[in-house]
Amino acid sequence: MGSNAPSSSDRTRTNWTPTMERFFIDLMLDQMHRGNRLGHTFNKQAWTDMLSIFNAKFGCKYDRDTLKSHSTNLWKQYNDMKNLLEQNGFSWDDTRKLVVAPPHVWNAYIKGQPDAQVYRNRTLTNFSDLCLIYAYTQADGRYSRSSHDIDFDDDALGVNFGVFLLLVRLCISIGIVTLSPFWGSL
């Protein structure tokens, strides 16, 4: 319309720097903290806020589809890593920020899943934060609560944030998440 911003179809590809990606992940975490995500998607206001803050920070004119597309890309990376970690013989090396396994385990897995080859030596420095954003975003009843389970008197932060904290603590307790400086201590 009246915007000079190139639309998603006009751009071939957005070049995401590590700084841009880290900032975007922090924006998503902040929107989660504010309760602006239901299930697996952020609400319209969250996307509007993230877009304006992101564009102001980096002096660009991206559209909502650009951020949504990158969120989808991050979800795919998270999901691919999570699927690898669910296989026997694979584990997470938090120091090197990558999935590790003995060579024979990798070779056997890649034989059946050739697309997994890209993750053999690929670091995912933001994996712990992606766990916070994308873990348990499907409605499987795992953390469902009825109105009888909620203490409305002292739930000052809201149900969404309470469930979020429960997930964070779970991820920390099983060792797949460490908190970035953005969050401090919970």
What does this 3D model show about the protein?
With 186 residues, this protein is mainly alpha-helical. It has one domain. 46% of the residues lie in helices and 5% in strands. The chain has helices spanning 18-33, 44-58, 64-85, 103-112, 127-134, 159-173, and strands at residues 37-38, 41-42, 91-93, 98-100. It has a two-stranded antiparallel ribbon. Strands 3-4 form a two-stranded antiparallel ribbon. The longest helix is centred in the middle third of the chain and has 22 residues, at 64-85. The protein is globular and about 50 Å long. The protein starts with 17 loop residues before the first helix and ends in a 13-residue tail after the last helix. Residues 6-10 and 138-160 have low confidence and may be disordered.
Summarize the structure.
With 186 residues, the chain is mainly alpha-helical. The chain has helices at residues 18-33, 44-58, 64-85, 103-112, 127-134, 159-173; strands at 37-38, 41-42, 91-93, 98-100.
Q: How many DSSP-defined strands?
A: 4
Binned, the helix content reads 40-55%
Based on CA atoms alone, the radius of gyration comes out at 18 Å
In whole angstroms, how far apart are the ends? 44 Å
> Which secondary-structure class do the elements indicate?
mainly alpha
Strand order of the largest sheet: 1-2
What form results from the Cα inertia axes? globular
Low-confidence stretches: 6-10, 138-160
Total number of helices: 6
